[in-house]
Amino acid sequence: MGLAKPSPLLSAGLLLARNGIYGMAWLDAGFVVTARFGDLTASLGVGEAVSSGLPFLADYLDDIQNLPADGRTSFELPGILLVNGEGTDTPRIDIYVFRSHPKITEHSVGEATLNDQTATTNSDEFLLLVTRASGHSSSDVALARLQRDRTILLEQIEQQKLELERTNAELELCNRDLEDFATIISHDLKAPMRALRYFTDDIETALAQARPQDAHKACAALKQQSRRMSTMLSQLLDYASLGRQTEALEHINSRHLIDSIVSSLPRPHRFTIEVQGDWPNIETYVAPFDLVLRNLVDNAIKHHDKPEAGWVRVFAKLTDDHLSVTVSDNGPGIPLGRQEAVFYPFRSYRRDPDGGCQPNAELAHGMGLAFVKRTVETVGGQLHLISNPAERRGSAFQLSWPLTPSQKTTADR
Amino acid sequence: MTSRKIMLLGEIGVGKTSLVNRLVHGRFRTDYMPTINVEIYTYNLPETNDRPALTLLIWDTDGNFGQTIFSSVYLKNASAAIIVGDSTRPATLKAMAGLATGWREARAGRPLSLLLNKSDLLPDADTHELPAELRAETTEPLFKTSAKTGENVDVAFHATADAILRRGL
Lengths: 413, 169
Prior knowledge:
The complex is a heterodimer. Chain A is an alpha+beta fold. In chain A, 38% of the residues lie in helices and 21% in strands.
């Protein structure tokens, strides 16, 4: 009796299996391979655990174990590419596992013998089906490359937009600085210049009238005025250079810093300074931070009209992105109408008996708060003044000091 | 030999495949071959005085997954994640922080390592400022790597394996 010829369907199935289009394996309840065929299951050994040939399946055995026995529901792990030891291309595969799938019995058909196949047993529980996944063609690769290039280009555009915005912000700051300086020079330096002229006129007149004593007095006043102008110009230069200095970030104990500032500042007898709140270790630009805190506290001391009962409180609180510091005092306060001007260079005010404010010639340099405001802006922080002498005494300066400040630098002039 | 699954995550083009190729095959390719879906590499760590022999199954993922990787079937039973960023592309470094958060939510208690790759392209790699989102990741080990030169590649993967074993995963 001749051997039965395999059906055309079976022959086609054999061909596909041998050409790596699909492969199958039967697994028992313990996930041991009991039979397999097809090149795509060549790594599986009959009698060995499925995870020996496909180690990554070990993490999914519990999912496979929980498959319902309906023959339709499958566990799926698509699009896997196993990189072999040589690193050469292997087919990308889709994996399916079914439970209680109908079994295929063995056929022996001469040349069409199914290789590597053993009879299935009653213990077979799962059918593992491995198919060749749709691989990535050259057009897929080209598309993926274009996508990556596009993504990188979009990132660069976004980065450049940010740079442009930063540059525009710096330019606006520069323009504002130029306007400020023009105002200062035309207004604040005009008065001292005028005074110099008056003093020289006084000297001429005194000499012409043979009044040497008056001439000496005018000379002394002239010298003092010129010294004052020199100081103002130095301070202007210091003010201009804020933001152009390159500082390095340092780790500091902010409590130590504020304590050293407080202990170094002269104060009237019985004037108290309290430090409260959370003062953590931070990474920051130390010199600007010191300048800001020192000037705020010193300012509160100097402008106090009742120093024998005066106090300043410095309170700190850490937030997610900044250290919040409040410097408050029980001084005369700053009227609402002056609260913008106190941050201008060369502005200093004292309370007058009527409750208003007038320029304080004794503190005529008045650069402290101007330095503070500019420094805070340079590091990307904020400063707010809260004061309303009409309702109550005292002022509070609320400082938001960024924890990782970005130091803006002005363009080289 | 015991095997453990490590997920390799990160934006497209950061060098995930180059890193694992450097680790497993000791080579670096200059032509960009995008990873599509998942590619699984096997890397055998030999036994040492401090560590038993261990096989790492490194799942190199498609960068396009983004956060969706954490809801995919591929993540199951992963013992650790290595999240990679491109030192020359700040956007990918920011994305690392999001992936780190996603990993912690999806696989709480599993170790995580952060790799700043392509450090060979930065002349001052040590002083390069990290984005704020990544600076907040202070508890995770961070390695500056180069798949091209091999710098810190072995170190990063070995450290991840050690972390898996230390936690008994």
